[in-house]
Each structure stands twice: as structure tokens, then as C-alpha cells.
Amino acid sequence: MNTSPFILLIDDHALFRTGVRLVLNTSMPSLQVQEAESLEQAMRNVSEPPELIVLDVQLVGLNGIEGIALLKRKWPLAPVVMLSSHADTDTVTMALARGAAAFVSKAETADKIVNVIGQILHGQADDHPARVLKKSAVPSFGAAPANLTPRQCEVLDFVCQGLSNKAIARRLALSENTVRGHVQAILEFLHAGSRSEAAFIARRLGLVD
Q1: Strand-pair partners of 36
Q2: In the chain, what is the straight-line distance between the N-terminal and C-terminal CA atoms, in Å?
Q3: How far apart are CA 86 and CA 106, in angstroms?
Q4: What is the DSSP string of 65-97?
Q5: 180: domain range?
Q6: How many structural domains is the chain composed of?
Q7: Is 24 inside any structural domain?
Q8: Is the pTM of this model over 0.70?
Q9: Do 184 and 82 fall within a single domain?
């Protein structure tokens, strides 16, 4: 049985696929790379489960963001590393919310891309998804995330615990309307469409325990 690491690379630019494969093979000679130009081709032609998937965001047909769920359904144990030339905050947040293990800008150096893939492949990059992102693509997160007040951070923690606005208001001695305003600010900050999505994103980004 062949035990060499097997990676699936999905990108609709043949030249870029070739470049990534050559760099990966140079850095990790034992690595096997199987290529596909679309999600449809990958789902149809790849039979063995890959150990890791490298996925471009912008693809012909079904795009990478929409395809994460399909890939995770077929290969639930394979982490997905997103690559894109457009590493804006909305795209990064959405990719991580959909289940991507990491997001790397194509503007990064080849060494950085290879390093991220290697870390994910060997289970060494599971402490914080944002550590492998293009720095300018995401807000700076600290004890109190940028653009969220300390009070809103408290509200976010309670939202992640599943508390209602009324329950949060009682805990913090605030009016329910005030809590509602904080929750709306949190949803906008995280680009989330619901409280449950906000909680999911917050946990993925390490904003709450």
C-alpha cells in the first residue's frame, strides 16, 4: 500500500496548478498531487480520499466557497486550504465559516503557501485559523476585537453560550433593546446572517473559548 501523502489541488488555471505542484514536490518530494480544474471534475474523477485539499475560491461553475460543503461531505477528514487572489475580509470569513482549515492569498510567497500546507497536513496549524491568513485580509483580534467594545465582547460570549437577548440583558443589567443593538453590531462585524452563524464564526476565529 502507498502511504505517501496525497493532496488534491483544485484550480482552473493550469499554469498555476503546475507551479504549485512543482513547488510542493520540491519541498516535499514524497508528496503526491492530483489535479482538477473544477469541483465537478474533482468529485467525478478522484476516487481515493485525499489527506488535504487545496481549493481555489474562483472556479468555473461551482465556486470554491460553495464547494467546501460538498468536499467535506465526500471527504470529511480532509482539511481544506483555500487559495485566492482576492483575500478580502468577507471572503476569508465566509470560507472559514463554511469549514475551511486555512485561507492563503495567492500573493503570498511560494514558501509561505508550502509552509501552510505542510503545517495543516501534519496537524500543526490547528490553534488559530487566522494565523495562516494574509495579514491585511482580516481584522486584528486581541482581548477585545477591533470595532467591538468590551461590552459587545461580553454579549458575544453570551450569544455563543446560546442565551437569548432577554437572558443576556438580565445578566448584564441592560435593557433588552440595548442588547439587541449590541447583537446587531456583532452580526455586522462578523458578517454573519444569524446568531448561530456568528457563534460559529467567533469560535472558528478564536474570539471565544
Answers
A1: 10
A2: 41
A3: 8
A4: HHHHHHHHHHSTTS-EEEEES---HHHHHHHHH
A5: 150-204
A6: 2
A7: yes
A8: no
A9: no
Q: What 3-state DSSP class applies to 40? A: helix
Facing residues of 105 across strands? Answer: 84
Cell 503545517 appears where? 119
| Strand-pair partners of 199 | none
Angle, vertex CA 102, rays to CA 101 and CA 103, nearest 5: 145
Question: pLDDT (tens digit, 9 = 90+) per residue, 4-38?
Answer: 668 999 998 888 888 888 888 888 888 889 999 99
Question: Are residues 161 and 131 located together in one domain of the fold?
Answer: no
The helix/strand/coil state of 34 is strand
Digit-coded pLDDT (tens) for 68-120? 888 888 898 899 998 887 767 777 878 888 888 888 888 777 778 888 888 88
131 and 102 in one domain? yes
Alpha carbon of residue 121 to chain centroid: 15
Here the cell at position 13 is 488555471
Extract the C-alpha cell encoding 164: 437569548
